[in-house]
Write a structure and sequence with these properties.
The chain has 162 residues and is α+β, with helices and mostly antiparallel strands. It contains four helices and five strands, in the order E-H-H-E-E-E-H-E-H. Strands 1-2-3-4-5 form a five-stranded mixed beta sheet, sandwiched between helices. Strand 4, helix 3 and strand 5 form a beta-alpha-beta unit. Helix 1 crosses helix 2. It is globular.
């Protein structure tokens, strides 16, 4: 149990954190009603270690117990004579353990990610928010995307010719 004034540190995750990150995912999936297949922890830790494009931050207490994580994938446009090189981050995961909720850890994780983005010149952060998390995202300034943003969802079936 987290003590009322116990400090929480949010830091970039390192390779040694692979199982902590995977364990937080496992907790989230269980909480969201998913059945966890055998070997999931190992396969997720291995996949996380291989994914060099994923940026991950870990929240932990003073004893280095993981309390939450956030991660996203950075996309950077190549430089062009008609525009500067810009970048954006898709935040794909933000989770705080049930025991640690209500302490501002989710917001601390999110603000750490946003501070990193500001320092790195990232011009926008996008995410898909579940209803329960919308107040957090809106509190720090997230809103609907611009009118110019388009999306195409690809299916696994072939597209018609033409």
């Amino acid at each position: 149990m987290l003590e009322p004034m116990e400090p929480v540190v949010v830091r970039p995750a390192e390779p040694r954190d692979a199982f902590a990150v995977a364990a937080l995912h496992l907790q989230a999936e269980r909480e969201w009603g998913q059945q966890i297949p055998s070997g999931f922890l190992d396969s997720l830790a291995d996949a996380w270690l291989r994914d060099r494009s994923r940026l991950t931050w870990l929240a932990e207490d003073a004893r280095h117990n993981p309390l939450g994580a956030a991660h996203g994938t950075l996309a950077r446009k190549l430089p062009s004579p008609r525009r500067t090189s810009t970048a954006w981050l898709h935040l794909g995961f933000l989770y705080v353990t049930k025991e640690a909720r209500g302490r501002g850890i989710g917001e601390q994780l999110l603000r750490t990610v946003l501070d990193w983005c500001e320092a790195e010149g990232v011009e926008r952060v996008q995410l898909h928010a579940v209803d329960e998390a919308r107040p957090l995202y809106e509190r720090v300034g997230f809103g609907p995307p611009s009118e110019g943003l388009l999306e195409l969802r690809l299916s696994r079936s072939p597209r018609p010719a033409g």
